[in-house]
Amino acid sequence: MPIRPICITGNPVLHTKAQDVTVFDDSLRQLVQDMYETMDEAPGVGLAAPQIGVNLRIFVYDWDAEDGTPQRGVVINPSLEIFDIPEGEADLDSDSEGCLSVPGERFPLIRADKAILRGVDLEQNPVQIEAEGWFARIFQHEFDHLNGTLYVDRLVEPHKSESERVIAERGWGKDGLTWLPGEEKLEG
Ligand code: ZN
Question: Which residues surround ligand 1, an ion (CB under 5 A)?
Answer without folding.
Answer: 99
